[in-house]
Amino acid sequence: QVQLVESGGGVVRPGGSLRLSCAAPQHILDHYAISWFRQAPGKEREGVSCIDRGTESEFYADSVKGRFTMLRDNSKNLVHLQMDSLKPEDTAIYFCAADSYSGSYHYRAQNWRVQTLYDYWGQGTQVTVAS
Q1: 75-92 pLDDT per residue, tens
Q2: Residue 43, pLDDT above cutoff 80
Q3: Residue 83: strand, helix, or coil
Q4: Contact indicator for 5, 121 with CB cutoff of 8 Å
Q5: How far is CA 130 from the centre of its chain?
Q6: Fewest CB within 10 angstroms: 3, 41, 122, 123, which?
Q7: How far is CA 87 from the centre of its chain?
Q8: Parallel, antiparallel, or unpaired for β 33-39 and 92-99?
Q9: Residue 93 and residue 39 in contact, taking contact as beta carbons nearer than 8 Å
Q10: Measured distance between the N- and C-terminal CA atoms of the chain, rounded to whole angstroms
Q11: Which residues pair with 70 in a beta bridge?
């Protein structure tokens, strides 16, 4: 059973920063696209960002573009989500997920938000942005 484990959540004030981490087995990080999703209270889960396998192409939701960045740390089998300039509307449970399919850039750009395509999910980590 493949496990993805998120960490790094917490409470932060508006304008602050947090770095989330997704720990995964090496073969997952090498061969799967890794994405972050989030679910706010009373809302559906939505895609936040994705880093593709191989090409390392990155995709971001418009709501986080320019504020969030995905980073790989291959030495520690981690994928990070660096979140800066946080807003109260970023409050949510954040999940990482892994998709094994190898497609074109266009395919990934069109489909990275499709949750049913993902093979593995973590349990999530809570992020709260409040003053």
Answers
A1: 899 999 999 999 999 999
A2: yes
A3: strand
A4: no
A5: 21
A6: 41
A7: 17
A8: antiparallel
A9: yes
A10: 39
A11: 81
